[in-house]
Amino acid sequence: MVIIQSAEVTLGQRRSDDRVPLLSGGRYREPPLRHLWLGLQRSSWFLMVYLAVFVIYLSLGAFVFGSMEQPVERQLHLEIRNRIEKFLLKYPILPEQELDALLMDVVQATNRGVAVTRNVSSEPNWSFGQSFFFAGTVVTTIGYGHVTPLSEGGKIFCIVYALIGIPMTLMLLTALVDRLMVPSTWLLRYLNAKLGHLYQPFNIRVFHLLVIATILVVFFFLVPAGVFNVLEPDWNYLDSIYYCFISLTTIGLGDYIPGDSPNQPLRPLYKIGTTVYLLIGLVFMVLTLTVFYEIPQLNVGSVFLLKSDEYVANASAYDSEKARIQGGPSLGGVMPSSLGSSTTSAVPFGSYGAGYGATEEELGRPSRQIVRVKSRREEDSPSPEDTTPVHARP
């Protein structure tokens, strides 16, 4: 007979034979079937519902953007048409078709980052500062699109450069965030020490997240927006905040680009400084998202994963097996064994999304334990000393 003192089956960690150990008898059985609803797993149903909600969300965005932007677009179109008509009346000798062709060429050149008007600085787009800024937008996947390679060689190099640079950037962000998680964890433990007797662990972790998010908003949105508002003559404060958000979320629409105003002083240095700001801001953005996803209660995306089905199925099997072994109400986590000794109740699953650097006690979760198997034969069988003849014993 085998006594299992404690057991654990953590999520995503299965034995090589893919069998779930029972809590008594030392036997193994196949894992329980996942919950199926009309032939589909639980997570698949949740995913289908989520896809429907996502499509509705996209449709809602299309409706709102269209209703808000179409009137402004029509008004701007009318103003441009009126200016063209006045220009043709003032210069009737110029054919309208020629003017349209000229305007089309100007628009195409502007879309490719080539300015042709005289009131724009004649500094080339591919100076070192401009090129450094472009390289930063490529490897960070911001990609404003205001300046693009014009030559075929430049396009090929951009593809190769991005294939190498994007993974390098991801590794850099991961390494920096890993180090920033150390002081973040210190802050979380400090909050636990000071507030643990007053609030639940979940509330403390949410407060910790709010502290990190506040630092992000203040030092990477509000303060930089004020700096851009001063340096960019055509931007107001809302435009500056809009640029910071669009850039640090890597949306990169390209409608606002710092350093492109006419007669911008120290333009190369300004571009390099903006690139450094974007890199540091992305690091802290990833740090905030990491802290967010370390809170299991807020990580609702886990219900759409296939391993969530395995978790639910194993949890049901564990509960039923535990109730069968105990044969009654809970005994406070201690199950009597057949030898009269008490053994600690097993915790079958590790908590999903365990916190970074925090102990299980700090997070309010049951501690993990290790499976230890001991045979009764080993206890009942005599030791080597007992089997030694008396005259031969030392």
UniProtKB/TrEMBL annotation:
Q: Give the InterPro entries listed for this entry.
A: 2pore_dom_K_chnl, 2pore_dom_K_chnl_TWIK, 2pore_dom_K_chnl_TWIK1, K_chnl_dom
User: Alphabetically, which GO biological process terms does the record hold?
Assistant: stabilization of membrane potential
**Stretches assigned to the Potassium channel domain:** 123-180, 217-294
Instruction: Name any one Pfam family assigned in the record.
Output: Ion_trans_2
Transcription regulation is among the record's keywords: no
Q: Name one GO molecular function term.
A: potassium ion leak channel activity
Where, by residue number, does the polypeptide cross the bilayer? Answer: 45-65, 128-147, 159-181, 202-228, 240-257, 269-293
Protein name per UniProt? Potassium channel domain-containing protein
